Please model this.
Amino acid sequence: MVTWFGRRPQRTEAPRLNARGVSQPTEKVDISSLAPDVLHFLGQVAYRELSEFEKLALAVATAPDLAAKEGLSAAAGRALGKHHSLIAEIRRRGHEPSDEMAPFVDGLDEFRRKTTGVDWYELLLSCYLVGGLLDDFFIRLSDGLPRDIGVRAARLLGEDSGTEALVSALQTAIKNDQALGSRLAMWGRRLVGDTLLVARSAMPDADSGGGTEARIEPVFTELIAAHTRRMDGLGLTA
Amino acid sequence: MVTWFGRRPQRTEAPRLNARGVSQPTEKVDISSLAPDVLHFLGQVAYRELSEFEKLALAVATAPDLAAKEGLSAAAGRALGKHHSLIAEIRRRGHEPSDEMAPFVDGLDEFRRKTTGVDWYELLLSCYLVGGLLDDFFIRLSDGLPRDIGVRAARLLGEDSGTEALVSALQTAIKNDQALGSRLAMWGRRLVGDTLLVARSAMPDADSGGGTEARIEPVFTELIAAHTRRMDGLGLTA
Model:
């Protein structure tokens, strides 16, 4: 099993946010026995990052001013870069990226439609919260991949997502508009529910008698704790 | 004056396309006396590339299949990379990118709206033809910039734009649908007209008595020749 930071199975600790809002998990829960097939993982995460890119590109296109556009374009570039790195991993294995991503298109497209929101702020919150939660989740899941690709995937997904611009645009708007804050708090709660369902369905089925749920639960507790800190950081009640 | 490939003013030769469809001008026309202010140039080209990125991102989002999405996402990444490199040049000069791009927003947004087209194929053709023509144009214009930035800008704009996927999608569609070919040929003619107007308006005013038009004309002849070769390569009559 791969661990690139200390692991003490008896004690789960939620990921911490550093100054830039980047998730930095300090402890890990063992879900390695639930590890997916490498190509399955790569195809799914590659399409997930493409989906994140498409949402961020829409946020760029609909940004109210140039400075916002500029910051968001950096985040879009990060998601696209992650996507292309994952595609390269698939090609390195002699497979066609489109083939490996295909099984995930319908589900993730439907999820994207449900999580796009009704305006620019809901879209931004979705990019930030869904992106953060799923990156955290897939970092956890990568723990069960073979050593080389597991480490590379985790490092790639853990890279700065360039979301500072999203956070700062949201913080300013929420501070200045209480009604918007209430609406976004509700939207955030709905997003976390939908996203956790996607994460749950992305986990490969473990042996039914193996206490799967017991092992999954602390992982989801961690993910939710990190999500709550993101909400707090924006001034939203989770 | 900067030349990073041979220049013989008496003989103008249109840019050639190499195997990947990348413009490779072999001769240059002297428009260096029409050179713009560096920040003016950088702001304009940076927003131009952001605009190209937005069009390509829309093409990704509306692509009919995963393979097309995949190829287009590479082109979108290239345009975004060019944009970010130009932004970095502006920052290096101690200026705020948003400020430098602001004067070009209305004009280029309006131009983008006019050149988006009515469907995916028109959008693809627009990305390819407008992007190619304006990159060629700004490479020419960069010739009059101070040596260091002029060379860097030209090299950056001359980099592979990743448009193979656009070309191949268009070629296939045009070959299989004669009506689409006729429609796209007309669209291509309209695009070149609108794009040349943008290029003309992007040139700084030279001294009225200096034979400006006489110097500009061969540049535009070159640009049109390269455009015609792009159209030919797609199977379209220019």
Q: What stands out?
A: Chain B touches chain A at residues 50, 53-54, 57-58, 60-61, 65-67, 69-70, 73-74, 76-77, 80-81, 83-84, 87, 97-98, 101-102, 105 (CB under 8 Å). DSSP finds eight helices and two strands in chain B.
